[in-house]
Amino acid sequence: MDQSKTPLFDAMVSLAESRKVSFHTPGHKSGKGISTRFRKFVGPRVFSIDLTCLDEVDSLQKPRGVIKESQELAAEIYGADRSYFLVNGTSGGNQAMVVATLSPGEPVLVTRNVHKSVISGMIMTGCQPVFIPFRTEHGASFPLNYGTRDILDSIERHSEIRTLYLTSPNYYGVTIDLARVAEAAHSKGMRVLLDEAHGPHLHFHPELPSSGMAAGIDLTVQSTHKIIGGMTQASMLHARKERVDVDRLSTVLRYLQTTSPSYILMASLDLARMQMATEGVKLLGRALELARWARMKIREIPGLKCANRTEIQALSGGENDLDETKLTIDVRGWGVSGYQVSQRLNLEFGIQVEMADIDHVLVIVSIGDHRGDLERLVNALVALFPGKPSPGLPIPRSLHGLVRQSSPDDAAGCLFCPP
Fold it and tell me: Average per-residue pLDDT in the chain?
């Protein structure tokens, strides 16, 4: 198939340019009824492709035309038997995977770091989770992913279970050895389901960890909007039909997805697939170069740490890998929290990070970033952390200190202790 094609988007543009009179939804009628402020800010053309299910642009509920063709292009590039466009995010895809593969009372082997949408899918289905124990004694300052041995041991102990549910990469970009796990699970007759929300890009560059489809996973759902060119809420689900009933999956998706899907979101999936198929290596190569440069510069700042791929592999004994486009910046050396650093980056430097926890801030470097963006981040961190850190009061000791009630003014500079 010609991966430079964008069947859905082309059909949408063609219909918009035909200037047909609309007596159907959406009610704004190609933007003529939209708020003037909204139209002035985003421009008029976007509303002309905010469409509904029409013959020219197909239907997501039962695709037969351009949506079907666009999904087939996605399946080909990802190596899937079927690919599905999702307009309610990877959360909806997780729920669909659970409902389509599990029955009430059926056990499922699952890692504890699953997203809440997986849990909600289990509640909807009534299946029974069997959680894989998670080890944390690896020496890293943030959660690595599950080790291969822990998952393989659980597969052996619960070989009667027919479904295994994993998350890889995790939020910090740490991945599982999916190929080894899939091979072991399949040998026991298990299907493997994967929440790959943070890995839609992994398939398109040789210097990134393996993608789920490349590793032999049976069902994987990805947030195209998180890392590559999809718009927020736009995701894809990829299936292999050897161990998955794809007809049941298609039916479940019709039940769980809206009957009024956003064509703009679906067009962004069509275009994101084309962009990765034709330019992915170049665009992701640039993102990797920027991330590596920023990591090097951050590691030069006294008191800050930013783990690299080699360190993650060593800490995990070779059982985990790292997506280098994720920068997890460890700020413990300065005696501050990641939340404080995130807030100061935002308020003082106009820099917004993906996430903060007690010890870190997490930065995502994507195909949309440029050298100037990363220079701005590095310069802000240099300004926030000048010179060398002085020893502060370690957080564990602070918990045993004297506690007193103070007014907000008197409490400035003190540590907060919850009641």
Answer: 94
